Amino acid sequence: PAADPAAGSAVKAADRAHVFHSWSAQGLIDPLPIAGAEGSYFWDYDGNRYLDFSSQLVNTNIGHQHPKVVAAIQEQAGKLCTLAPGFAVDVRSEAARLIAERTPGDLDKIFFTNGGAEAVENAVRMARLHTGRAKVLSAYRSYHGATAAAINLTGDPRRWPSDTASAGVVHFWGPFLYRSPFHAETEQQECERALAHLEQTIAFEGPQSVAAIILETVPGTAGIMVPPAGYLAGVREICDRYGIVFILDEVMAGFGRTGAWFAADQFGVTPDLLTFAKGVNSGYVPLGGVAISAEIAATFDTRPYPGGLTYSGHPLACASAVATINAMAEERIVENAAEIGEKVIGPGLRAIAERHPSVGEVRGLGVFWALDLVKNKETREPLVPYNASGAANAPMAEFAAACKRGGLWPFVNMNRTHVVPACTITEAEAKEGLTALDEALTAADAHTH
Ligand code: PLP
Fold it and tell me: Where, if anywhere, are coiled coils annotated (predicted)?
């Protein structure tokens, strides 16, 4: 693409005049103006092209500007842009069918939302009404969204400034062997101790007061901690024992990211409620939702469900979901994510870890990987302190800048970089990104001792 720096400057000036950005001190940010995107790449107005190893916010699973999805949105726009949620609409029914056919077990009813946080809000509401109980248990090192209940369920520092209405939310520790909260030495020990800790938390909270346990099947932004074998099955068993609703949040893990339609299937568990968003239509139009079990759906057969949204099941969003899911099936995109992860990204990252003193651990599956960056491999001291900002975060900022100079757009969170490209990424693109990452990690190595 031809460079047009003047156009880029105008876009940025207009942004700075009127756009109020998420999660940011408005006077301290410098948003990069973007001219376009296609497949695994996007580019700015200065002629720089970036390989997108972040999939934006880990949502463009099908890549940028997939022609079938673009065409479906255009076609739907010409036919019927919007309609209230109370009507039956062909594309909404079809999207619900395609999703329900892929969700695990008997999760066959779909409540549509505009995104992930609203999906979590509604899942929690359903669980509380279904059980008549108030408390919801969630994990530290988690992210569930930025609306009232979802941010309080979140187990990372994004919760702190909004932690005023956390009534009914109790946090516990999930398994994470590399930084084990249980001083475990093996995955099996970590699994057993994490389950015992969860059960004890429930006992001390009072099982009769716990409506739901919500977990990310594979925690995403908090560090891509693949759960040890048996952990999720153990949580399922605990939920069954105490009549607690099991909610799996697959907003980030679902729709191909882990190399399966849903990560729950890879771990052999069926939750009672499953939240999704992001990859359902790669974010081309805002969409999320809750997949609901037969038993919970039956609770609202004769009793009205007290929740709704003007744009629930929006036709443009549903048309893009139908096209996305069909394209993913036709083009074997989920299979590609699994294969690239197993054959290229996983081995590539492990080789990189051997070359760099700053890479403490490589973990992940599919196109869902994290590098845990450390000052020292022996002590595992994180490259930057937990929730560091400003000067304390300089090593990560330098690493991210080095990636960008090398044409790679990284996903960076605290002391980690995540390798989360599109599920459509080719072997050549993945190798190009790994080479750029390998070079950029030299900037992190400079801070090791
Ligand atoms: N749940 C998980 C696991 C997420 O990763 C996210 C967003 O990153 C959310 C919920 C919130 O989704 P949204 O930003 O669409 O509200």
Answer: none
Which amino acid is residue 33, in one-letter code?
P
* Whether complex ipTM tops 0.95: yes
Reference 360, options 345, 346, 380; nearest CA is 380
- Per DSSP, 128 falls in state H
Which residue, 93, 94, 147, is CA-closest to 120? Answer: 147
C-alpha closest to that of 406 among 414, 417, 416, 415: 417
- H helix or E strand, kind and range, residue 119: helix 116-131
Q: Can you give the pLDDT at residue 160?
A: 86
153, 247, 249, 252, best to mutate for ligand 1 pocket (most atoms within 8 Å of CB)? 252
Whether the CB-CB separation of 288 and 65 falls below 8 Å is answered with no
Residue whose pair of structure tokens reads 């090192």 in the numeric block: 141
Give the pLDDT of residue 159.
87
Cβ count near 24 (within 10 Å): 10
| H helix intervals, 157-293 | 187-205, 231-242, 263-266
List of domains in the chain: 5-65+332-445 (3.90.1150.10), 67-330 (3.40.640.10)
Contacts of 10 (CB under 8 A, 6+ apart): none
Question: How far separated are the first and last CA of the chain, in Å rounded?
Answer: 42
- Name the pLDDT band for 53 (thresholds 50, 70, 90): very high
Q: Which of 57, 60, 156, 251 to mutate to test the pocket of ligand 1 (most atoms within 8 A of CB)?
A: 251
CB of 289 closer than 6 A to ligand 1?
Answer: no
